[in-house]
Amino acid sequence: MNIFKTQEIGSLKKPTWLLEFLRSNHSEDEKKAALDDASFVNLKMLEYIGLDFVYDGEARRVEMYELPVKYIHGFEFVGRVRSWDNKYYKKARVVDKISYVKNYHFEEFVFVKEHASKTPKIPVTGAYTLMDWSYDEYYNSREELAMDLAKNVINRILKELEGVGMQVVQIDEPAATTHPSEMDMFVEIFNEQVKGINAKVNTHICYSGDEYASLMPVIPDLKATHFALEFANRDSTNLGIDDDSRPGYKALKAFKEYAGDKEIGVGVLDVHSDYIEPPELIRDRILYAVKILGDPSKVYVNPDCGLRTRRRDIAFAKLKNMIKGVKLAEEALR
Amino acid sequence: MLLKSIEAYFFGIFPRSEKLIDITRTKQNYYEDLLMESIKIVEYQKSRGLKIISDPQITWEDTFRPLALSADGISVNGLNRYFETNTFYKVPVISSKPIIKEGSLKKYLTRGSSLISFPDPFTFSCLSKDKFYGDKKALIRGIGELLASFASEVNKEGYKYLILKAPSYGNCEFKGYEESIKDALSMIKSSFKGEVIAHVYFYKNMESLNFLASSAIDVIGVDMYSFQIDEVKKMDNKGKGLALGVINGLNTKMEKKKTIIDMIEKINLNVNKLYVSNNVDFEFLPQKFALKKVDLLSEISGDIL
Predict the structure, then answer these.
(1) Looking at residue B270, what is its pLDDT?
(2) Contact B88 A80 (CB under 8 A)
(3) Which residues of chain A does B250 touch, with a Cβ-Cβ cutoff of 8 Å?
(4) Which residues of A fall within a CB distance of 8 Å from B253?
(5) Looking at the partner chain, which of A78, A175, A179 has a beta carbon nearest the beta carbon of B286?
(6) Do the chains contact at B24 and A86, CB–CB below 8 Å?
(7) Chain B positions with Cβ closer than 8 Å to A
(8) Domains of chain A, residue spans
């Protein structure tokens, strides 16, 4: 029996053939078949690598913000805004009361569930992040907007997915700690969107800017049992399980203090670098986490974030090494 | 009431057009395209009757990059979130005394502009990684000296207004560093024959406004979406001019001209120099909205009081 469970965080880079196919003059049925193919290939690749929780690399999704906003009434796209350098994202404004239009994950999830041999874990962008990444020209407060998104849209989507067999959901909330003064609001919104959900609720929060200092104290209040977090991008590449060798994992001590029996998904791969982390480095990052947290059964292993930022061959090599690193860590503990 | 007129400008990085964004994603060498769009934005301001012409800094990847790349002793490494926005910058890493590479900044400047924005020395120091000084006071002075060299260089290129973007006073403790910040600001002011304006935004910190009023800068810029009108009225500006950040660079919603004018009149400060501006860089908006907000700025300027 494995000690550590492994998972991807969500996105993989889309295959070039898929992008070309989608841009060309094919029928909608042909495009759907191509998306099915890509979804299937990603799913089987992640299973082949050996991950315990899998999805389809978000093959059908344009992007984690753009897809939901396209299918929620009340939003209107206004143009692109810089993320960094020459990287831009499409941003929308809210011009009307938010309401549900369709379940934009339904078809995708049903397909994955039908073809997965491992447990599917579906990533869903959370209400707080959708609110924070949009301009608001309609509501009187950020909270009011986020609450409508949580109640009227995300909660309904999750309930429908649960109705067709969703066992694990990962609520993606990268904006969660962007505004440390709003953490109470974030908790309220987060809990509202998962109200009545019996599936296991994971959350993924990344690039917080404060190394999770504002997140940790509210972890007990959040109705999530699993926190997939990023660490590797701040870490050194030195081997070792002492504090000096693992500067990127400082926040684990606070997690130990606040999280009780909640699980952590420890990010061991930097998704913004082509550096292929060697299995020994991954092993030491996992062992350090166990050293700090104590109970290895609460430690899951994953990349820092979605690997769509990397070429597919690089993502593959990183994930393969992640599995090797997990095995080394397990050997060291036995 | 001493006021006779009000002037308007925008500061900071201006957003790129959708067309230019596409170019930067498909073309290998797009420097000329960046320059052409910069000139267009300069011409746009002139066509709207603005007297202070802001360099749109279209070529600037972030607030720090051109300065870091135009100096010895600084490199950039790692992405960091720019305050509470969803925009990231590469962190300046200071590994030896930063010294200007003379002439290097020129390629980031736009001909015909009279105003340019730099980070203020305190903000620069808070958002950098220091591997050389080991002492924040020395770091602030070192950065002040570097910025003074850049200020002198842009002054020679014809710039008359220097904006110092100063959000860090609101979220980074500046107590204990007052003297070194004042020294840094004095160095910058004495290197620049023109107006030096420090804009405080994103966070509210009254002490920072009062502190800046006692420094060498000429004008204090206030984010009117972070500070309340009554708070600004209570500020002891010590005879400094005031720049009111009344146009919101964080929301597409258009401000109403009358609301803005009412706000300015309510403040009714006894200042001899009053400007209106955006509250934060316009780069957090798509360009078409930023242009509309520039139009509004030009409508507000003039003899309104």
Answers:
(1) 73
(2) no
(3) 135
(4) 93, 135-137
(5) A78
(6) yes
(7) 15-16, 18, 21, 24-25, 61-62, 78-81, 84-90, 250-253, 283-289
(8) 5-62+101-333
What is residue B1's predicted lDDT score, i.e. its pLDDT?
45
Return the exposure string of B23-40: e unless at least 16 CB atoms fall within 10 Å of the residue's CB, then b.
beeeeeebeebbbebbbe
| Mean per-residue pLDDT over chain A, rounded | 96
Taking CA atoms, what residue in A is nearest to B66?
A: A85
Residue stretches of chain A with pLDDT short of 50: none
What is the interface pTM, i.e. ipTM, of the complex?
A: 0.93
Residue B2 pLDDT: 44
Q: Are B159 and B200 in contact (CB under 8 A)?
A: no
Name, in order, each residue with C-beta under 8 angstroms of A290's C-beta and a sequence gap of 6 or more: A296, A299, A329, A333
Spell out the residues 6+ positions from residue A14 whose beta carbon is closer than 8 angstroms to its own: A38, A59, A308
**Overall number of domains in chain B:** 1
Q: What is the mean pLDDT of residues B76-104?
A: 93
Q: What is the pairing mode between strands B88-100 and B71-81?
A: antiparallel
- Two tokens, residue A277: 């982390």
* Model pTM score: 0.92
Q: Report chain B residues whose CB lies below 8 A from the CB of A88.
A: 21
* Spatial distance between the Cα atoms of B293 and B281, rounded to a whole number of angstroms: 12
- How many residues belong to chain A? 334
Q: Say if B214 falls within a structural domain.
A: yes
Taking the C-alpha atoms of residue A130 and residue A63, their distance in angstroms, rounded to an integer, is: 12
Q: Does B251 sit within 8 Å of A137, measured CB to CB?
A: yes
pLDDT by residue (tens digit) across A77-88?
A: 999 999 999 999
Find residues 270-289 of chain A whose CB sits inside 8 Å of chain B: 272
pLDDT at B235 over 90: no
Domain that holds residue B269: 6-304
Domain assignment present for residue B185? The answer is: yes
Domain assignment present for residue B1? The answer is no
User: Do the chains contact at A81 and B62, CB–CB below 8 Å?
Assistant: no
A91 in contact with B at a CB cutoff of 8 Å?
A: yes
What are A45's strand-pairing partners? none
- Residue range B22-29: mean pLDDT, rounded: 94
Written as six digits, the tokens of A318 are 């990183």
pLDDT tens across A223-245, in order?
Answer: 999 999 999 998 999 999 999 99
The CATH number that applies at residue B101 is 3.20.20.210
Identify the helix (H) or strand (E) that includes residue A46: helix A28-49
Rounded to the nearest angstrom, the minimum Cα separation between B58 and chain A is 11
Hey, are the CB atoms on A175 and B80 less than 8 Å from each other?
no
Model confidence at B4, pLDDT cuts 50, 70, 90, reads low
Answer yes or no: is B276 within a domain: yes
Q: Which fold has domain A5-62+101-333?
A: TIM Barrel (3.20.20)
